[in-house]
């Protein structure tokens, strides 16, 4: 088995140092490949290093831990670092994610490490973590207002209202804005589940469109529906399975 890798995202320098030293003693096989002091750095570290484990503080500058986790739950096993009270921690006990309560105790860290080792042996993270995150945040119907997209050597935040459409590209997703195209290392299905379905409509098995970006819908000479966008020149095909979405137009 390859050496496991991890990222520590914690804005308190002392706590970050203590966790790094404790992990070195209790899990010497784990290689900490990066540390982050805010949510943006955490996203960048996950994109750059693809760690198996992310130790993630819930309360951080720029983006909080829950916002970061929604972006990366399908890429890494998340362990929250939290000061939440015990009642709020009940959602974590479902087992889809783990947590370390501040101040971190060695005994609790040992338990978390054992859980992580079992999950790493079992394979990739469970996708249903997203449901647990919604319960933890207490906002069952909150959808993303932005996507973190890699661009060159950085991670850019693209607001969802800037997106014209998204298109499947094998196991990746192409994100199209009026002036740019980005590639996400997640499937279209996973990305779509994080977006408001009232705003983003699936119009083809490989295409999701922002309704606000539609200029017009017309029929091609073959009789199928096509979408003309307001701020891009290409047209988007609507498959017959989704034609009913446009009956009222």
Describe this structure in words.
With 249 residues, this protein is α/β, with parallel strands linked by helices. The chain has 2 domains: 133 residues, Rossmann fold; 101 residues, Beta Barrel (OB fold (Dihydrolipoamide Acetyltransferase, E2P)), CATH 2.40.50. It is 26% helix and 31% strand. The protein is built from 6 helices and 15 strands. The strands form 4 sheets. A 5-stranded parallel sheet has the order 2-1-3-4-5, sandwiched between helices. Strands 10-9-8-12-11 form a 5-stranded antiparallel sheet. A 3-stranded antiparallel sheet has the order 13-14-15, with no helix packed on it. β9 and β10 form a beta hairpin. The chain is elongated and about 70 Å long. The protein starts with a strand and ends in an 11-residue tail after the last strand. The mean pLDDT is 85.
Q: Could you please say which CATH topology of the largest domain applies here?
A: Rossmann fold
Q: How would you name the oligomeric state of the polypeptide chains in this document?
A: single chain
Task: Determine the N-to-C terminus distance.
Answer: 56 Å
**Model regions low in confidence, pLDDT < 50 over at least 5 residues:** none
Helix count, DSSP H or I runs of 4 or more residues: 6
CATH homologous superfamily grouping of the largest domain? Response regulator
The arrangement of helices and strands along the chain is EHEHEHEEHHEEEEEHEEEEE
The largest β sheet comes out as: 5 strands, parallel
Roughly what percent helix? 25-40%
The CATH architecture of the largest domain can be named as 3-Layer(aba) Sandwich
Number of domains: 2
* Main CATH class of the largest domain: Alpha Beta
- Mean pLDDT score: 85
In the sheet with the most strands, the strands line up as 2-1-3-4-5
User: How much beta, percentage-wise?
Assistant: 25-35%
Secondary-structure-derived class: alpha/beta
Q: What is the rounded Rg?
A: 20 Å
How many strands in all?
15
| Morphology call | elongated
């Amino acid at each position: 088995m390859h050496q496991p890798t991890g990222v520590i995202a914690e804005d308190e320098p002392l706590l970050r140092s203590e966790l790094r030293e404790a992990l070195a003693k209790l899990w010497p096989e784990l290689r900490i490949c990066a540390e982050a002091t805010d949510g943006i750095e955490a996203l960048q570290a996950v994109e750059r290093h693809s760690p198996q484990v992310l130790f993630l503080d819930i309360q951080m500058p720029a983006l909080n831990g829950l916002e970061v986790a929604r972006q990366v739950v399908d890429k890494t096993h998340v362990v929250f670092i939290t000061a939440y009270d015990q009642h709020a921690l009940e959602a974590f006990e479902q087992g889809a994610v783990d947590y370390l309560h501040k101040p971190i105790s060695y005994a609790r860290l040992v338990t978390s490490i054992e859980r992580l080792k079992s999950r790493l042996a079992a394979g990739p993270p469970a996708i249903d973590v997203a449901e647990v995150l919604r319960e933890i945040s207490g906002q069952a119907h909150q959808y993303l207002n932005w996507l973190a997209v890699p661009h060159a050597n950085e991670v850019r935040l693209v607001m969802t209202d800037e997106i014209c459409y998204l298109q499947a590209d094998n196991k990746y997703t192409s994100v199209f804005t009026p002036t740019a195209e980005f590639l996400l290392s997640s499937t279209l299905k996973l990305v779509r589940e994080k977006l408001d379905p009232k705003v983003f409509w699936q119009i083809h098995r490989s295409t999701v469109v922002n309704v606000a970006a539609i200029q017009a819908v017309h029929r091609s000479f073959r009789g199928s529906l096509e979408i003309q966008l307001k701020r891009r020149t290409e047209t988007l095909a609507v498959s017959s399975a989704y034609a009913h979405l446009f009956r009222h137009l």
